[in-house]
């Protein structure tokens, strides 16, 4: 698991949206080449996250696009009802220091 201490979260992360970008950026950095087979013959990275310039939007804008593929415990449907409690760890790496800066 990538351990989290609430004080690791910079004070500038003050919305759920910012928290999502912060967390996905960390997962992307720590697991850039880790993949999982999601369908027969289809391997996907467990975490992808990056800014993209989207010209189709009006006006054109930068957007942060991310995707995570996180394993759940086999009995997640009959557990506590809080799906995040059944997520399995990707690794035991630490949050990089540069993500802890305010």
Task: Reconstruct the topology from this structure.
Layout: H1 16-30, E1 35-39, E2 42-45, E3 47-54, E4 61-68
Antiparallel strand pairs: 1-2, 3-4
Task: Summarize it.
The chain is α+β, with helices and mostly antiparallel strands and 102 residues long. It has one helix at residues 16-30; strands at 35-39, 42-45, 47-54, 61-68. It has a two-stranded antiparallel sheet. A two-stranded antiparallel sheet has the order 3-4.
Question: Any key phrases for this structure?
Answer:
102 residues, alpha+beta, two-stranded antiparallel sheet, 4 strands, globular
Can you walk me through this structure?
With 102 residues, this protein is α+β, with helices and mostly antiparallel strands. Helices cover 15% and strands 25% of the residues. The chain is built from one helix and four strands. The strands form two sheets. Strands 1-2 form a two-stranded antiparallel sheet. The chain has a two-stranded antiparallel sheet with strand order 3-4. Strand 3 and strand 4 form a beta hairpin. The mean pLDDT is 93.
Number of strands: 4
Q: What low-confidence regions span 5 or more consecutive residues with pLDDT below 50?
A: none
Strand content: 15-25%
Order of helices and strands: HEEEE
**Gross geometry:** globular
């Amino acid at each position: 698991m990538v351990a989290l201490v609430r004080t690791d979260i910079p004070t500038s992360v003050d919305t759920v949206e910012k928290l999502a970008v912060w967390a996905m950026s960390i997962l992307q950095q720590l697991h850039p080449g880790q993949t999982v087979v999601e369908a027969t013959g289809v391997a996907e990275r467990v975490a992808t996250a990056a800014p993209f310039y989207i010209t189709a939007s009006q006006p054109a804008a930068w957007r942060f696009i991310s995707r995570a593929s996180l394993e759940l415990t086999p009995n997640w449907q009959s557990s506590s009802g809080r799906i995040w409690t059944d997520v399995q760890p990707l690794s035991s790496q630490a949050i990089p220091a540069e993500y802890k800066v305010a």
